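Re-running the complex after MR caught last week's input typo. The corrected sequence lines follow. Everything else is unchanged.
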Amino acid sequence: MKRTAAILLLLAMLFGLAACGGGTSASTEPSVEASADVSAAPSIEPSVAPSEEPSEEPSEAPSEEPSVEPSEEPSVEPSVEPSEEPSTEPSEEPSSEPSAVPSEAPSETPSTAPSEEPSEIPSEDPNVETSGSIEETVAVGTKTGDDVLDDAVLEVIEDVCSADASLEDNLGALFDWMTKNLTYRNVTVDLSNGYTDELVTDIAKTLITTYRGACEHNAALMKVFCDRLGAPAICVSGDFKNESGAWVEHAWCICEIDGAYRHIDVLYGRNHTHGNARTMFLVTDEKFSATHRWNAEDYPACE
Amino acid sequence: MTSMKKILTVLLAFAMLFSLAACSEAQEVSGNSGPGFSAADLSLSHGGSTYKCDVHIEDVISALGEGYTYSEAMSCAYDGLDKVYSYESEGADFSTRPDGDRDLVCEIYVYSGDWQTSKGIKIGSTADDVTAVYGEPSRSTNFVSYYELPASNDLSTGASLYFEYMDGDGVVTSFGIVAEQLIGEE
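Corrected-run output:
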């Protein structure tokens, strides 16, 4: 009898577990699904049916807008002739960038008028943080004074830099992080006063907090990274030659590392080198001038 | 013998109840479709129409009209002109990239009005609302959360949906969608 009871018990539990297994096999875990082909199905679609997803407002009646077929695979052929006479003058067009800078921590860095003299890389600020280990060993350079930006910069440095790595290697790691994590956004930056500390802080903060920005944003953030690691840098206004041979207004930075000056162009490295972004990291004038031009009198020689 | 049968019956009942209870708990988890993000979420709606990236800008203009302001500049990322069509009254900017002699929408950024995502997130929604329907973001800061699809190649950046919380209080102040950036083809 005991044997029968044990067998019955076992069968009952097996039955229960089998039923349970059938339930878990239908699991639909939340996930970020892989894209099938994003470009294959874009359209401006009339809202024919209310969304099945939760909405805080009732969906309106179906639109009368006609359905628009998705565009064919986009071409990258140029749509315009090479630009007119290139210029290294800063744009005087006011910024059309949306107000994307966090409001809670306004820049503490005073704005400075652009200098008539050639730009000089400021010497390293002795006011450095030494409270944390990464700050004692890696982030030993100058802060911007903006808490939001400085904290965000330190967070990235902690993620990608190493106390055992050289300054060049750590700068390279930050360059790589920028090329892989930041995306291009077409916005105009008002450079009528040049790259003031205030502007550099504002646009670097916009980029690191939203992950999107134009060449000026990339130049500014790279400068901030360089400064923080003790390789003082400046932003450069110049031009690069695009695939059509046209000169395009552009921005990058020059940093001083181990007593030598070198160009760093994050956005060009990311978007115009077919995956060889590092060819735009710590570059001499001679090599850089193949694709870029700038007023050499305004900036240190990178020899 | 009778008491033995009773004991056996009770034990059997407990065993089945235990198994079913465990099963029920598992089904409760597995049966919840839950939050998530997919390519189907890469659209924004406004005024009864739905807008996506990678369409020609003429399609947007035919839907929203000519009431936009326009700016352009040689692109630092693409070969040609970057253009922005700003519909201020609708609270939206449409950025384009060159596509031969036409322009493809590469980003839609909305900052006011009655725009909403395919899952009903609007300006004024909270970060918790966003997480509840899309799950944990691919990456985020205190001011933005990104939901990204994998890129089609190592040199590109996947298409994304993002939410900005620029007041730092976890309330959506703006949001947008970005097309995949095919860097490797430039």
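None of the earlier attempt is carried over here. Chain A is about 30% helix and 10% strand. The two ends of chain A are 95 Å apart (CA to CA).
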